[in-house]
Amino acid sequence: MKEEILEELNIKENHERECKLATGGLPESIWETYSSFANTNGGTILLGIKEHRDSFTVEGLTDKQIVKYQKDFWSTLNDRNKVSKNILLNHHVRPVVVGEKKILRIDVPAADRHDKPVYIGTDPMKGTYKRDYEGDFLCTEEAVRAMFADQRDVSGDVEVLEEFGLDALNQDTIKGYRIIFEQLHSGHPWNALENDEFLMKLRAASKNKNGTLSPTIAGLLFFGEAYHITEVFPNYFLDYREECDDKAVRWLFRTHSNEGDWSGNIYDFFCKVRTRMDDDVAVPFANRRNGYRVDRVDVHDALEEALANALAHANYYGRRGILVVKKGKEIIISNPGTIRVTKEEFYAGGNSDPRNPNILKMFGFVNVGERAGSGVDKIMTAWAEQNWKKPVFDFSERNDRVTLKLEVGQVVYIPGAVDIRNENTNQAKAMAVSKEDKILEYIRQNGSISSQKAADVGGYKSKTGARKLLDKMIEKGLIMKIGNGPATKYVI
């Protein structure tokens, strides 16, 4: 009966839903559910149905009740003293027939981050709800402030920290980063710049109100000293642990940002942790390419991707900081701050909407982290290729955290697979480079290029593919965009 009703309503068993009898009028608790669905992943409210553990009782509503409930619902929803924002359209609220009875169906989509928090009453700190498997719950003030912060279109991590000078940054970290940058980008014009100019190009530093240079939030987190970082982010903490089953041994190895004998910034943490994290990824001796042993495979890149994504998507105002735990074959990576897109968009890839995009960009310059939002797909694909246990993401709305659980093991060798995958990757990179070169050459000769001309020059069937390449070239600092709409041009 339950499955038949869900199928009739085109609702999956795992879909978020709330059933209410509503025999005595529009339930007051409907607004908590509206807020929680809007602030989480959306859901459906069904009025006139009672849900049991394994079944439904469809009581139904009269036509008179449906008309009244719709009127009362829209009236309250559009009253800014009662509900902060109406994110619904007419088709989201409609009567439907189940069997021979009518019910009222209310579909609440997940609110865009620009509209969150959606709250009840006039005080967001007392009326903002979210939802997890236990039901609706009142958000903490910290979680509400995080939602307000996420409304901004301008990346928060490029905010200039006026109270600091560049002496707040660790020079050894900058030096190490530049060495890798120069190895990967031989001949790049940034290689000839002084450190302060290089940091400005990365948007790790910018001029303050006095005309001198100060680090940005991204610059301080990426290159700074931990004791300076905690002046801005009191809860900042990076923690890596290797644990075992022996309860008498607390941990086999540990490093964290408060140790004092290293910088404690996120780039040095990444460099320290990535080599230890993938030690247990065993690569068979048979893995060879062109006669040489291959010690590094897609799984290694996916592990780096997972760590970089956690560091770039974290809410550094959140509690408990970044935690990475390795125990035997299991690796757990956890960061404060929930995702800023729906779960469906998250798993589909292509729209990652990172909380700290400039940090992700700085990782990208040293070939770490996917700026196109396909990092999740890379992780899932790498594990599927090895037939390892599927990675599990846990989105804890109550704790405002994202946790990734991975299990690693012996890399499976498939004769020729490494060579084929490598050749395909190199071919794809060569195609991308050649298209970039063609576009740059056209701009040099003509002064600028439009997206339509870029599509023609790059051999794309539509402007969509060309725009993606142009966006990547902007991120790399190769070109810049001027103008808007049809007048948009791209110049070097």
Report what the structure shows.
Residues 286-294 and 414-433 have low confidence and may be disordered. The protein has helices at 2-8, 30-39, 63-77, 124-127, 141-149, 171-184, 195-202, 217-223, 226-232, 266-277, 298-313, 343-348, 357-364, 375-385, 417-446, 451-458, 463-475; strands spanning 17-20, 43-47, 49-51, 56-58, 93-98, 101-108, 129-132, 135-138, 205-207, 213-215, 238-243, 253-256, 288-289, 292-293, 322-327, 330-336, 392-396, 401-407, 480-482, 489-491. The N and C termini lie far apart (64 Å). 38% of the residues lie in helices and 18% in strands. It has 17 helices and 20 strands. The protein has a six-stranded mixed β-sheet, with helices on one face. A four-stranded mixed β-sheet has the order 1-2-6-5. The chain has 492 residues and is α+β, with helices and mostly antiparallel strands. The protein is globular, with a radius of gyration of 26 Å. The chain has three domains: 2-149, 2-Layer Sandwich (Methyltransferase, Cobalt-precorrin-4 Transmethylase, Domain 2); 157-407, Heat Shock Protein 90 (2-Layer Sandwich); 418-491, Winged helix-like DNA-binding domain superfamily/Winged helix DNA-binding domain (Arc Repressor Mutant, subunit A, Orthogonal Bundle), CATH 1.10.10.10. This is DNA binding domain-containing protein. Residues 13-132 form the Schlafen AlbA-2 domain. It comes from Jutongia huaianensis. Pfam families: HATPase_c_4 (PF13749), SLFN_AlbA_2 (PF04326). InterPro entries: RecG_C_sf (IPR038475), Schlafen_AlbA_2_dom (IPR007421), Schlafen_AlbA_2_dom_sf (IPR038461), WH-like_DNA-bd_sf (IPR036388).
